[in-house]
Amino acid sequence: MDKIRTAILVDGGFYRKRAKSLWGEKSAKERADELESYCHKHVGNSYLYRVFYYDCPWLTDNIFNPITGKTVNFRKSDVFKWTEAFYDELKHRRKFALRMGRLSEAPQYVLKEDVLKKLFRGDKNFSELTEDDLRINAKQKGVDMRIGIDITSLALKKQVDQIILIAGDSDFVPAAKLARREGIDFVLDPLWHPVADDLFEHIDGLQSYNKPGRTNKEAKQDVSQGTVTA
């Protein structure tokens, strides 16, 4: 019997954020090694068709910081250097393909949501604001579309038997439904993030690995609930 052909699709922005939360900060090479190793846990004895990684290049704009009153050149930032090194690492990995979107135009600094709530409640004054209270508001464009198109293409062309999607939202429900109608085994890996009900009913399985602090007892409970873990 031929091996099951598996394609792994990774929402890069989601992965980077969750990986940092779950397993801490790492160098670009260490994070790439981690992702490659993590994807191979999903493959097992099946045949890896390809890992598709979706993301956006980091900011290169000059953006005014309202707290410091200075303009920040993001091309010279540590985050820019890290992401460029990370993408370069992935480009040299066997079976990895990068699908790059773009960031929305006119990104700017905005207050973090928890800080904004504190201001409205009176728990914090404007005079107490620091750089740490700000975040960059820059939305990805073209990433979700590329994921949806690739899921559809893989399913309709019968290129794979199984699709593993590493993502955390329900934007991919239409594509997941199409893939399942075409006979594709569609598995979601939310990296231990809670899954919305409208996505649950349109997948064939839920599978995450390497949960920090997971005990053997918890592993058995996960399996009994239909979630395969390792």
UniProtKB/TrEMBL annotation:
InterPro entries: NYN (IPR021139). It comes from the Bacteria. Residues 138-184 form the NYN domain. Residues 210-230 are annotated as: Disordered. It holds the Pfam family NYN. This is NYN domain-containing protein. The lineage of its organism: Bacteria, Pseudomonadati, Pseudomonadota, Gammaproteobacteria, Aeromonadales.
